[in-house]
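Supplementary material to the annual report.
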Amino acid sequence: MKHGILALVILALATAIGVAFRDDPYHLTQDSGYKPADQIALAHRDSPYSHVSWIISETMSYAQLRFFDKVEGGVCLEPDWASYANHPHADRMRHLLMPPDFKVQYPPADDSWPEGKPKPNPGTVVQSRYICSYPLGVLLDQEVMREADGDPARAAPQILIVGLGSGAGAAMFTHHFPNAAITIVDIDEVVIEMVRDHYPFLRWLEQQTVPDDADAPTAGKPRLRLVHADARLFIRHDAHPDREPRYDLIVLDAYTSGSTIPPHLMTREFYAQCLDALRPGGIVFSNIIGSYTGRKHAVLGGAINSMRAAGLDHVHNFPVPSRMQRQRNLSQAQEAHDRNNIVLAADVPLDPERNPGWQLFYDRARNAVTYELYPAFAPQSERAVHQGFLIDPRSNDYYLSCRVRLDGPDGVDPELLGRLAAKRGDQPADGTPVLIKDTELVTQVVGAIRRRYAERDEKLPWGWDTDNAPALAYVTFDGIAFTRSVFTNVVDVAASKLNRDAFRHQGAVLVGPTPAERAAIAAIAEDTDDPRAIQAALREQDIDLPLTVIINARKPDHTWPIPDAPLFTDGKPNADILNN
Amino acid sequence: MWIYAIFATSVIAGFCMMALEIIGGRYLYPDFGTSVDVWAAIITVFILSISVGSWLGGRIADRFHSNRPLGWILLIAGVFFLLLPTYARDFSHALGPTIHQARPGSLLAAIVLFLPPSLLLGCVTPMLVKLLHATGTRVGHATGTLLFVSNIGSVLGILVADYVLLTYFTLNANVLVMGVVLGLLGVTHLLRPVVTLGPDAVEAAAADSVAEAS
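Predicted assembly:
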């Protein structure tokens, strides 16, 4: 009896403690200059795979879907519908004009929605560099661009995206290509619901079809389809060429927690199935986190190797360094630090020189994207958000504080802001930090922020309570300016000649020839040593390799830039394990 | 000496069973994906094997009084491991178009591919308990020790499979090697038959092993 009562008491105590002191699952960290002081979690749900939250921040002007409080990038809060409706070129931007009275049923009760905070009403512009590169997958497609005479407004690609995330990819494609028909497949139903419930623009797109008068292969098709399925099964069964027209572009951006790509989406057999689901000449576009010699080089090298072994012979890698990496030593940043890599692969050459449609596009879009092609990129009145965070440029632990808003009613006074803006000069409002080392100015900004928070009787955000602030990073961000600058840069990189640019590399040059190609080279090399002759002989066998690869393959101790790239097959699906 | 043979058998059987679970899952990936449903199916099948195998193993142990059925069970389990590479992928692949949804398809595939070998391995522990102590004295001690050893084997199977086997070797290579090991273990038991010990010999053997250890 005594044992029973004691056990009951312990149980009651443990229950009470557990219930009373359970930690807040929506604890948002503020411990870097990347995190803003005013971020709020608007909605959270648990799924079998992840814990997902919608976070908004007016300082950063974004709405993000975070998985376990990770995942950067997101969609911009501005431009919103109203700014497109009042746009001088509104007549050519109907594909972006969600009606103002379009409402999504926001679910009540199960989400904690702070009073008075705006709902996410994101437009069509994203804050992620690699997603700004998505349009390359269409622009480098010879057939789609030829059909459209190089005009993105007329291009009508059928796109399959694997991995929904926040839906930013769909937003970016829609922004660029009004006639695109997009299908997104995701393994997690909760993520699909979170996007449907809280991202009005995508909800609206699901109900739209490409206009019948578009004179395009996608006419009459839904502009967006969200499918809950495992991508491997979907591509093998539902994307089958006999069941529906083949895709022009397959975007692979599926990640589990830990920045890991599921191993069954990284094998040679899977890439061959992607090839089957593509129309001839279609492109596979993968986002692969990794580097050439760093921790995750095996994943990047293995992916390139496996794609080539699957028949996607022409592979190009576009590394997307982070802002910090771009400001530091470039070659080091390229090789050892893991970052996003955009890997484009097809069974036809992807070089823009061989793509007449691309040439038409590029001639009109030279260096500055013309607003004739992209009315949505036209500059609008200054909508930039001004942010700042404290840094120590001499140390590796760069960030000293989180980000706060410097303009608006919560910021510093206009005169001080004007002095900061003067330091910025002509730099576009694309989110690149400007380093302010003027100690007096920095001290004034810190003082002004402290006063504001004291006036409102609020606790200072992380890091601002310091007397030691060597420098301030001053950031001006306008979603349109950012998108325009990243996209322009990506287009220029794609157009530049091989080997002249630090940000575009051919897959075969990175990992070397596949075993079959190596055997072919060896066989031909018995007759001749001249690399050009070998190249010509290979072309007769339908093998297209650059001279560099042939020359280096003949050297017995040559090390490829991505050393020892493995081959991922269904018989040895270990991409996720090598990723660690 | 005999005790160590029992422990070794226990560790090897536990290792192979759990390694098959980790490695075997990847046989299902290409045709059924990596969703939670697939892993639910795999874990279901293995725990079912432990459950039914324990019941079956206990019945067999009481019916026969030697290690001969154990030897045969290990050998047949090894044979299933060895033959798995010949039909595993083809079977999943064939199921694909007809039942390509993850839930029923992966469950059926997991049952056909993994239930026979793991069920047999699930029989091993109760049979080893019987061999260790025939009269039922010190049952708690015997059972506890064997479960300890067998689950250490399982833990090793999981970790080694994850950290080493999957990184460096193909799925088929792993399964074939485990098949050979299990088969040899079974043959060893069949070549060295032991009749179950009586109660006095049990006490003596226990006293011996204590004396050896100290």
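Chain B touches chain A at residues 26, 29-36, 89, 96-97, 100-102, 162, 166-167, 169-172 (CB under 8 Å).
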